User: Which sequence fits this backbone?
């Protein structure tokens, strides 16, 4: 088992104990977010740092606050 530490832009995301080490350009799904492995660094015998680039989250258009109010008759 390997201790895999996932990072995004030098921000710690997750630590997992895995049997397989992720490879560069492999698609991963962490905490419900899709991403791609950018870099893998071996830090010790069983410790690896994996740098991931996540897909950008698209914000859907919200309705205007005036549309939420009921129209008075």
Assistant:
């Amino acid at each position: 088992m390997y201790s895999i530490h996932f990072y995004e832009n030098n921000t710690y995301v997750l630590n997992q104990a895995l049997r397989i080490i992720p490879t560069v350009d492999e698609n991963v799904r962490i905490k419900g977010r899709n991403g791609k492995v950018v870099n893998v660094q071996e830090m010790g015998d069983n410790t690896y740092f994996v740098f991931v680039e996540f897909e950008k989250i698209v914000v859907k258009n919200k309705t205007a606050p005036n549309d939420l109010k009921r129209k008075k008759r």
Summary: The chain has one helix and five strands. The radius of gyration is 20 Å. The chain has a mean pLDDT of 88.
